[in-house]
Specification:
CATH architecture: 2-Layer Sandwich
Low-confidence stretches: none
Shape: elongated
Number of helices: 3
Largest sheet: 3 strands, mixed
Radius of gyration: 16 Å
CATH topology: GMP Synthetase, Chain A, domain 3
Number of strands: 3
Helix content: 40-55%
Distance between the termini: 27 Å
Order of helices and strands: HEEHEH
CATH class: Alpha Beta
């Protein structure tokens, strides 16, 4: 079951954020969820990247504008595609000499 956004301004903000991400990552997939904060909306963006920080860099200014200028509590949460998780685990094994589990 997907979360339904009722506020038209929030719908437009989500669509604009999706468009920004799709311009750079056309394979991106999205889902929307309600945040723990009242009224907060999370846009989950699944991208074919091992490290998802570039997605945040891409949308950060727009997200802050929506939050601060428009009062819209929207957040973008990038996630690697499942196929990248095994690659990420292997990278952590090779580069983590203390064998600390970063997924805890």
């Amino acid at each position: 079951m997907s979360y339904q956004i009722k506020d038209q301004r929030m719908k437009r903000a989500i669509e604009e954020l999706k468009d920004i991400i799709l311009d750079k990552y056309p394979e991106a997939a999205f889902r929307i969820s309600e945040g723990e904060d009242s009224g907060s909306i999370h846009l989950h963006a699944t991208v074919d990247l091992l490290e998802t920080d570039p997605v945040i860099d891409l949308v950060m200014d727009k997200v802050l504008s929506f939050q601060e200028d428009d009062g819209l509590p929207v957040h973008v949460l990038p996630e690697p595609m499942l196929e990248r998780l095994d690659e990420l685990r292997e990278l952590i094994k090779r580069t983590n000499p203390l064998r600390i589990n970063p997924f805890l």
